[in-house]
Amino acid sequence: QEQLVESGGGLVQAGGSLRLSCVASESIFGFTMAWHRQAPGKQRELVASITSGRDPRYADSVQGRFTISKDTAKKTVYLQMNSLKPEDTAVYYCKKGLSNPSWGQGTQVTVSS
Fold it and tell me: What percentage of the chain carries pLDDT values higher than 90?
C-alpha cells in the first residue's frame, strides 16, 4: 500500500516562508504529483501540480508565491511557499496519481497576521 508522508508545516507570520515535503514509499516516476489544501468549513482545493514534460500548474491564489518541485530519486515532492498570507492557513495534503490517487495525512500550515 502506498504511503505519503507530509512534513514541514507549522506556524509562520504573514510574509514568511515555509517548505513542505511529501515522501512517498514507492516510486513517483510517471505520476502526477499535487498539493491540495483545506481550511475549516471550506472545500478542499488544488494548490499546485506537477507532471513530467509539462509546466507546473498553480491555483490563481498562489501563483507567483508558491513553487512545486520534485526529486524523483528521493521519491519526494516539495512545495515552497513564500509571501504567506493568513488566507493560506489550511491543512495541506499531498496527492500521487490521478485515476486512483493516494493521499497523505496532511500537515497543518498556520499563518498569523
Answer: 98
**Can you tell me the distance from the alpha carbon of 84 to that of 41, in angstroms, rounded to the nearest whole number?**
20
Q: Where are the alpha helices (DSSP H) in 18-100?
A: none
- With a cut of 90, say whether residue 1 has pLDDT above it: no
| CA 7 centroid distance within chain | 10
The span from the CA of 79 to the CA of 19, in Å, is 6
pLDDT of residue 2: 93
Cell of 78: 516539495
List, as own/partner pairs, every contact residues 45-53 make where C-beta atoms lie below 8 angstroms and the sequence separation is at least 24, other chains included.
Answer: 47/79, 47/92, 48/79, 50/77
Give the tens place of pLDDT for each residue, 58-69: 999 999 999 999
Which distant-in-sequence residues (6+ apart) come within 8 Å of 78 by Cβ?
19, 20, 21, 22, 68, 69, 70, 71
CA 32-109-85 angle, 5° bins: 100
Residue recorded with cell 514541514: 8
